[in-house]
Amino acid sequence: xxxxxxxxxxxxxxxxxxxxxxxxxxxxxxxxxxxxxxxxxxxxxxxxxxxxxxxxxxxxxxxxxxxxxxxxxxxxxxxxxxxxxxxxxxxxxxxxxxxxxxxxxxxxxxxxxxxxxxxxxxxxxxxxxxxxxxxxxxxxxxxxxxxxxxxxxxxxxxxxxxxxxxxxxxxxxxxxxxxxxxxxxxxxxxxxxxxxxxxxxxxxxxxxxxxxxxxxxxxxxxxxxxxxxxxxxxxxxxxxxxxxxxxxxxxxxxxxxxx
Length: 259
Known about the structure:
Layout: E1 14-15, H1 18-26, E2 34-38, H2 46-51, E3 56-61, H3 64-73, E4 81-83, E5 101-105, H4 111-120, E6 127-133, H5 134-141, H6 151-159, E7 160-168, E8 173-174, E9 181-188, H7 198-209, H8 216-219, H9 243-258
Parallel strand pairs: 2-3, 2-5, 3-4, 5-6
Antiparallel strand pairs: 1-8, 6-9, 7-9
Helix pairs in contact: 4-6, 7-9
């Protein structure tokens, strides 16, 4: 097998630029040695991960053709090449419960879901370095007050510092996507707790942004039918609230629900 055919239904666009591949792998922090690569495709990142003997790399792909290709080209790492769906896998057991970083040229059609899966395993994932659509990267890195700031921005930034590393143009992929891409790095914050009910925090963020153009006084009504308290945040819109503001407002909502 000489090439893997990119499959549209899997959101595959194979990176073909070796310099960018080296740059992505070089963006990983050296202290993290367990690496989970999501969607290796034809192995442009995998080759640099496997040749670094300080790393313990597992390459995970849902595409049978990619798996066959990788096992043919990297027979010494056959046990490290796994045919599975990242979104449905128990990734917490991949490295016997030890921390690991997530890296990849992420399939564009599931990139947001990949990050939500990382959040579910945030206690084990100190770092993520990945390629996504440029607009997704901008959304994740956006600060409050920005029109692209939303659910993904708040939930990710609650637990990770987000760095927009560099933009990648369409012509370095086969087939070229219709959008620009970007590489981002997420570094886990040293917070064991947000200082609020974290399940409610997630619900509050999603509820308020579901009606992002409304004042919070109105957008919070699916959670609290009658807002019987005053708070300055009630006269704002959700994109005006920082992560810390959302934590504070979650505590306000929790008290109101108990009353």
